[in-house]
Amino acid sequence: MARARRLELAEALALGPGWRHACYALLHAPDPGILFGRLPLRYAILMQMRFDGRLGFPGGFVDSQDSSLEVGLNRGLLELLGEAAAAFRVERPDYRSSHAGSGPRVVAHFYAKSLTLEQLLAVEASATGAKDHGLEVLGLVRVPLYTLHDGVGGLPIFLENCFIGAAREQLLDTLQDLGVVEAGAFSGLQIPVRLRQPSVDSGNLR
Amino acid sequence: MSTAAVPELKQISRVEAMRLGPGWSHSCHAMLYAANPGQLFGRIPMRFSVLMQMRFDGLLGFPGGFVDRRFWSLEDGLNRVLGLGLGCLRLTEADYLSSHLTEGPHVLGLVRVPLYTQKDRVGGFPNFLSNAFVSTAKCQLLFALKVLNMMPEEKLVEALAAATEKQKKALEKLLPASS
Lengths: 206, 179
Hints:
Chain A: It is found in: Cytoplasm; Nucleus, Nucleolus; Nucleus, Nucleoplasm. The complex is a heterodimer. Chain A has helices spanning 9-13, 69-81, 117-126, 155-158, 167-177, and strands at 5-7, 20-35, 39-50, 55-56, 59-61, 95-100, 106-114, 137-142.
């Protein structure tokens, strides 16, 4: 499969009418929980098992009725995640990157949205009632941000799963900004991901 | 891994398993499934909804967990553990399928297993199989689908071959070229 090519937003928006636009969002919330009494969860970050057996982010295609990318994205989130997605809106400041190449003449725009843990839990709770549950979405999963004693279980193993398009890179890019992984920690399969120790400041996205 | 047949773990009978000494831990897992008459995109039959879960360690597995046999029968222990997450369910000995010997809690999410294969021969079940699984769960899934006649063995072998091929290609891209 051809590697996804990164584009500037302006370049992406200037693409002709033959191109389709899709938007995806990484929803995250600080999570004070601790696993096994010693592994800080740090953040709850949502991904989904897609109909095609790959992991990706919720979202979907923007259609001609949508007045902006974000209108399409929020509509897609409602269809995929259900009613709880109506409690927040993903906006242009949440935009992070665009990639072309995961489908013919398709450009995918990636956003990351900070939620409260309550909002994120509500999304998880209502997801099975969403219109697309069991169809386009086979289930929501959280991303494990810790590494187990064996140095492999947790985030490194999770990254060995099957991802759509640039989703793995988009995830790691966001984790870097959240201060969870070190820059350049990942360059391919089966390479150990170096995690940064959690500090007092939970980190903010630019 | 030979792909001539569906790989299987060392299976033991339930009777043998129950005779194992106190040094052995028992974990019970369940594949919960239901007939699903729906169609994806209005044209791809889904046939069944099969539940798996993303475990705390980033691997896919079946819901369930350790059962302390000093206090619970296998089924009571399993129902208890499933009840903690799923509620209102009762499995009985009639639902028992198999026991396996294997080496060694916090669920990140439940996912359904796509049983169809898309036109590109990779989307759906083959891609799903190329995710990271607890080895027992992958074998149990393939075994259950075969034994419950949910998928003919040729289709299982085909999907497994496509998944293994994909993983091999990804590995080749990653490792330095050798002559």
